[in-house]
Structures are given as C-alpha cells and as structure tokens.
Amino acid sequence: MLDQDAQEFRRHIARWVDERLVPQAEALDRKGEFPHELFRELAALGYLGALYPESIGGSGLANPYTCFAVLCEELSRGSMGFAAGVCMQGSTATYTLYKWGGKALHERFLVPALRGEKIAAFAITEPNAGSDAASLRTRATKAEGGYVLNGTKIFTTHGTVADFITVVATSDPAKGLKGLDLYVVDTKTKGFSVGRKLEKFAIHCSDTAELAFDNVFVPDECRLGSGEGGGFLNAYKSLTVDRVFTAALAVGNAQAAYDAALRYARERVQFGQPIGKFQAVQFKLVDMLATLEQARLYTYYVAGRADRGEPIVTEAALAKLAAADGCNEVCQKALGIFGGYGLMNEYPVQRFLRDSYFPIVGGGTSDIMRLIVARQLGL
C-alpha cells in the first residue's frame, strides 16, 4: 500500500507521536488551548512542509499527498484536535497560496508558515452560508490599489491565533459562485477582529473562531489568481485535496479507538476470563478492524491518485465519506466494549468518540459528500 519512502516517513512521525503527542493528548483536550509549543516543535522537524517542494521551503517528497495523509493519520492517532490544526496549516490554509499566489506572497506568508513562524487560516463559512457557497455575503469592493472587505466568517480554524487568513469573498453577490475570489488578509490589518472564540464539544485544542471584517483593505497583489471570479474553482480544488486528509484524520482516530478497545478487551476480566475471550466482543473487534482497514486502503488509494495527478473529485468525497462514518462507527463500538468506564474522562475512548464527529462535518458533511458523488454520476 505504501512505498518504502512513505513507510519510513510513517516510522519517524509515529515515533514523535508516541513520545511527544500521546502523553500530552488528554491535557491538551482539557485545556482547550492552541498548543503553540508542540506546533513549533513539529515545524522545526520540517513536517509542516510535507506537501510542498523544496523551492518554497517544503520537504520535496516524491509522493507528497500520500506522506501528508500519513502525517494526518499518525497525528490524529495521538490527538485529532492537534492534527486538525496541522492539517489546516500544512494544507487547507496554505494550498491556495502555494498554487495561486506569486513569489512575493510566498516569501511573505507561505515560507514562514511552513517554518511555523506564522500561523495560517482559511475562512469560507459564514453564519448564513455553509455548504451553499453561492450564498456567501462577505463583500470585496474594488478600491484604488486593492479591495475593501466587509463581512463575517464563522467556524474558522486558527481564527484567534492566525497571522494571516485566506478569505473567500464575493465581488458581486448576484453572480453567485462566479463572483467569488480569494484574498490573503494580514490579521494586523485595521478593521479585522476576532468576534469570539467558539467552544466545541470535540477537538478542543483546535482553535475555532468567528471573524469580522470591517472595511479591511487588501492590496491587489493579495488577491489570489489571475482574474476576478475564479476564486470558487480555486477554493474547490483546495477543499477536494483537503477531503483526502480529513479522511486520514478519521483513520488515525479510529486506529486509536481500536487499539484502546483491543487492549482493554485483553486486560478487563469478567466471569473469570478477559472479555476478549467472549465471542460477542471478538466479533465487535473484528468488525471494527474491517471498517478501519477498508477506510485506510481507500484513503491511500486516493492519495496515490493525487500524487499521480489523476482526478480525485469523486474519489476524495468517497474517501471522506467512508472514513468519517467508519471512524464514528468504530468509536461507538469501542465505547461499547469499555462499557461504563468508556464514559469516564480518565479513559480516552470518550475523547475518540467526541472527536469522531469532526470528520463527519468538517470540510463538508457526509451528506454533502454523497451529493458531490451523485452529481459526478450525472444524477
């Protein structure tokens, strides 16, 4: 499934996860704060640039999509909240900048982001516009030398800690999707503010916020792309890639839940023997493993297609759908094996189950994935 380079990449990041992330995962979840120290530590090891070429400070890997999926999976095995932030930094919030930003923007924003010196965010969702991107109302009005942004965004990962944000805004709401473009906003710009930090029941250490743009000036050079109105297509391409990595996040969390349930089944004794000796528990564990491995195999199949430059619109949606729903199923069964102890905060299985809902809604809900595939089938 993985070539030798990807397997070696997995061994290195898995060691860091086991030694540095897993021991801190519960504390990170309780505090609910962005883990600056761990983030900088991971950046110093070069992992934030796994998706990008050496020319802009990336790792220059031969199979970047596969390796970044490995990174997301392994980090999520330790903490999905932490992994979600890394996925935002190393993919979603920097991919559009890499693809459609010029050299000056790369030097100002992208290169420092891959070093962990600047934190990046991507703002698309609004209070009244989620999956319906044509309804976005954050407005970009042309002005001398640039654009003026007005509007609000919600559910923005890294919202309170970001140094720059790629914002999806419309130059003309009447044009729907064709009016959307991408603008890179320095968060020190006058008129930008964080409305509030949003409290979630899952992925606690992944920072999420509501943002406000009040006459925020964005220079012409900070609009991504070569012409007005191409922003939605660029954002859609980025989100398509991101779905592969969200699937990997789900696989990692499911692996953690399965590992915990298997250990517990071997250690927990009832009626004179480990509960893993009972057929009901055995069958549940086997079903969990089957679901996990199916999701993993398809996720890396799609990542491999991306590495080869093959289309992945349908496949990425299917990968996210299968992995997200499968992760939730695995985590629910893991909680069942733990029984009453699974509800206790001292056991991580409750965190795995809570976090399993993030891939179901993050980056487009499972039903939106079904809709994407249905449209690709011509239905």
How would you describe this protein?
With 379 residues, this protein is an alpha+beta fold. The chain has helices at residues 4-21, 25-31, 36-44, 64-78, 80-100, 103-114, 231-267, 279-307, 313-338, 349-355, 358-361, 366-376, and strands at residues 120-123, 139-143, 146-157, 164-170, 180-186, 192-197, 208-219, 223-224, 269-270, 273-274. The longest helix is centred in the middle third of the chain and has 37 residues, at 231-267. The radius of gyration is 21 Å and the shape is globular. The mean pLDDT is 94.
Proportion of residues in β-strands: 15-25%
Amino-to-carboxy terminus distance: 32 Å
Shape: globular
User: CATH homologous superfamily of the largest domain, by name?
Assistant: Butyryl-CoA Dehydrogenase, subunit A, domain 3
How many DSSP E strands?
A: 10
CATH architectural label of the largest domain: Up-down Bundle
List unreliable stretches of 5+ residues: none
Return the string of H and E elements: HHHHHHEEEEEEEEHEEHHHHH
The strand order across the widest sheet is 1-4-5-8
Report Rg.
21 Å
Please give the count of helices: 12
Question: What do the pLDDT scores average to?
Answer: 94
Helicity range: 40-55%
- Major sheet summary line: 4 strands, mixed
Please, how many domains?
3
CATH class of the largest domain: Mainly Alpha
CATH fold description of the largest domain: Butyryl-CoA Dehydrogenase, subunit A, domain 3
* Structural class by SSE content: alpha+beta
